[in-house]
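thought: fold this chain, then report.
action: predict
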Amino acid sequence: MTGTETLLRRIRLLTWFLIFGLVLSGATAIPLQAELNWIAGWFDPGTGMGHWLTKVQQALNESYAKYPFLAYGTDWLAFGHFVIAIALIGALRNPVRNLWLFDFGLIACALVIPYALIFGGVRGIPIGWRLIDCSFGIFGSVPLWLCRKWARQIETGTNTRG
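observation:
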């Protein structure tokens, strides 16, 4: 296997990982109420995490009972995840020509951090939860950075060390 083939294989593997993560994350946003009711049962409401999950569960159940159309917002959140995953198919097909998709992903990952910290603070989300949200941007940037690096190596021909 040549250096280029090795790099393409790595890029495709990590891109599939990103696509899978986006689809899974989007899919979990649709049945949010059922998932939250299920997960909240795992935690003692007297603990920090249990208290927070119970509070969110109560708010979501009450809101959805009175205003079920609010769930449409998380349906669109899921749609956004699916569309970004679909866009990454371009990176699977030709990562060098579609290098900009890795740049786009890196910018999106960087923006997760101030977005979560600012709007999470405005909405009263506990700092621990906001840091978990920030971690998606941090961890997502690693495979994107590697894919971008390897695609640039292919583009410039500096890929002799597979």
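thought: worth noting. The first helix runs from residue 3 to 29.
final: tokens above.
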